[in-house]
Fold each of these.
Amino acid sequence: MADKPNSDQGLDTKFQEDPRFKVSHREAIIGIVIAVANFMWWFAFAYGLGSKPVEEYTYILGLPAWFFFSCVLGFVVFSCIVFLAVKFFYKEVPLDDDQGGGLK
């Protein structure tokens, strides 16, 4: 029969949240906001400009304007936003099981 740990054996029963969780949650929220904004951008241009009859389309670089703005320009804009978010808002977090809290 396995021994059950209890407070009499000197084990610390207090839960201490890892500070990396707070950083991870903040970065996850930033990622979700960027993903939702990217979808809204794509949806607005694709269905906003693309809902016209084909005869009324305008073209940019040989592509329909709705496709250019939603897919080509959207990719460039959101790639830059992701780069800037990672550069300025994300932190390097050690993934090892160091209890010393390695956040800098």
Amino acid sequence: MRALTWHGTHDVRVDTVDDPEIINSRDAILKITSTAICGSDLHLYDGVIPGVRPGDVLGHEFMGEVVETGRDSTLKKGQRVVVPFTISCGGCFHCKIQQYSACENSNPAEKQDMSATLYGHPMAGLFGYSHLTGGYSGGQAEYVRVPYSDVGPIVIPDHLEDEKVLFLSDILPTGWMGAENAEIQPDDTVAVWGCGPVGLFAIQSAIVMGASKVIAIDHYPHRLELAKQLGAEVIDFRKTDVREALMEMSGGIGCDAVIDAVGMEAHGFAIDNMIDIAKQKIGIGADRASALKQAILAVRPGGRVSIPGVYGGMTDKFPLGALMEKGLQVRSGQTHVQRYTKDLLEKIEDGTLDTTFLISHRLPLEEAPRGYKNFREEQDSWTKVVLKPGMEQEQAA
């Protein structure tokens, strides 16, 4: 089959690789109908996530048609399903309390040492996201093997087209959990750093949850315009002193809650960020946490900090004193996708949530390398890329 594979920093290719096979009785095989490039895929593309190997198949946002099942899978051939990017067994301590992204069994034992050393406990398995998280092949391919297919995938009704539901795989529940972790109350002022796909869904979710004011922070005009269309007020951080503006927009108190949807590759020319960029390039320190540092300083005393943005290592000059002295609450983590998919599917069906407004480009799988390059380098206009295996044949017909 054809699949998008990683070969090094800024080097991804569509190669012919072996077809996936049923390995476990709970497995299923999907024929991919739609898959997307995620902002966190760019961390792999930029070479800042350890444990990726040449030839690894990328992609953790995907959906497709069930074409083969193991004897213990609950799926049936022909069903259309969206698959959570987190791989979860459904039976361990964490899965039973719906902390699916902390599953104890989905990362194979022989691959747990690296993340256990880094984080104190091994990570759960994720699709297409390095051997830190199990080394599973991802879904930017024609076919994919889905472990624990009786736990994760959600069956999609025929009347909903792919693009309305594809993002249930990651960025929609990630944005929703980012807002939920901010514990939003009806009178809250909420600031969101980053108007990428997760940030935009966090903004939309915060508004649906009843925040009285949501403030979006970015520097790309089109992405800020998308945030404004959702109902947010906006700040261009290259033109405005962010903390000063937030104080003014929150009545001189500071935001009640802040959401960092940027993660480990923050942009901007703040001195601390420039130093972090230099350190990241030479491998000293893995995370550029400028957005998170700003958020901690901008939130009011007693406020809440939510971090859906991805971090992988260490960071310098972290404002630990502000965190403690202001009495802040912090919540973060990979998304417990399976906890949210059913409710969010209902919100898509009844029109509460729109998931299609941020799609800017639809490409054949064979053009995935161009999609990665432009999604990284043309972020103002390339807001979300959906890849369609088989689109090449449709275009040629």
Amino acid sequence: MREDSARSRFLISLIVWPIILIIVFPFIWMVLTSIKPQTELFRIPPSFWPTRITFEHYATLFEQTSFLKYMRNSIILSTMTTVVVIVIAVLGAYSLTRFIYPGRERIATLVLLTYLLPSVVLVLPLYLMMVRIGVANSLFSLVIAYVSFALPYALWLLRSFMASMPEDLESAALVDGASRLGAFFDIVLPQTLPGIVSTALFTFIAAWNEYFYALILVNTDEARPATTGVISMLVTSFNIEWSLLMAASVAMSLPLIIIFMFLQGFLLRGFAGTGVKG
């Protein structure tokens, strides 16, 4: 029995590890390229390991370009989008799972259907709305756009998570005299925390990596996030600054990697909970 189990683990490892290496290889190559000297970037045949490690590309990126401004914009955008989406999604999901009113299920279905709409369909109405309310070409306009595509999926995830939670504790608190708001903060929110954190992480990653809306709705360096700012700064019709591009890609990946390392437990528990009734 033990031999069969060990053999199964070996076969699974034999299949899984090559797949993991294929997925991780571009990231490893990106990191190694970012610390290679300029003279080694286009060597033929290419070398995997750098003959000399240098951080000159990072120094150039941080000191001589607008990269830090783009990173600041990305952090502000992703954080504001996540906060707005989570506040609205938590309240909306609580309403859809705990209150009974006509059209409740239809509303939930319509919310998911809006997520299925392609971004290109929404970008023109969003742009016209930004111009009309006077916030076009600003960080605030991108926050509105990012909320529009992240909120439906976040609401659906949290609705599934709350629907899988038993209502007994909340009902007992209401019977003991707790108000609906008190039961929400003391009972529902602590139980929903893994789902909220995983949804917040998903929203942050989606906002951090968003490119299309940022490309169409913003054309000034003061409001550009890192995704479009780096491309406009380092990629032109005649030249691509590969060394700086790799350094920027590593720097842009680090915040997500750090956040994921600290919150991966919440992420797995959250998506496991939403998968019950998703």
Amino acid sequence: MSTHSSRIAARIMVAPSVALLLLWMVVPLVMTLYYSFRLYRLLSPDRTGWAGMRNYTWFFQSPDFWLAMGNTLALVGGVLVITVVLGTLIALLIDQPVWGQGVLRILVIAPFFVMPPVAASILENLFMHPQNGLFAAVSMALGYEPILYLQDYPMWSVIAIVSWEWLPFATLILLTALQSLSSEQIEAAEMDGASAFGRFRYIILPHMMRAITVVILIQTIFLLGIFGEIYTTTQGGPGSASTTLPYMIFKQAIVAKDIGRAAAGGIIAVILANIVAFFLMRGIGKHLDT
């Protein structure tokens, strides 16, 4: 049993790490907040001073901002639906005893270890390319014109690319949950005459809800910051058709050289991410306690 002195000693030993972690998070946030109220453009360094709320009002009055917000929510929602549904189906499939099951599982989760820009390049050039891609070859073999995926359906293409990257993660988590399900429950339901859909609806799915919740929470946090896939494939275009909020902030910081507006966009993104996380935790976090 720990004594009072041992607890104090433990807190003293942990304190430097906690202080360093706070500095690691607080200093960049405070600097971003400071520059969000400043007039700071690298192309006109002589123009400085306080900008007040102008950097924030520019974002809210820009048509691209609301388009970027819609694209960000479409990206997060689309990828979550695809990865959870397909991840559940694939987990059910590869959980069955088949020859080469170990190798099959490794192949299923392999895309998750590919770096995002590399994965985006693979899908762009090997699958979606209008001349040399696999999809173009299939379309021409069937007598149809190749589809310009990144030009005609840029946001759907980005959602497909990101879903391909995150599907192995969802499959791995859901497969782990599926393997912890007692086979005796399934066998008892089969003996009682329950159909395959009934066993999935009333036994398997409730058992997997906690894992699905974990997948949604973790993926949402990372999907709100997706950038590399868009930069590699569409660069936010055509126009602003596939621009998300992180990519819009990037364009203000790197292309427009406007650090003040980019900092304001960063603060807006942090606030929105916390709002989404709050409602997610309240809405579906209750499954973690059951």
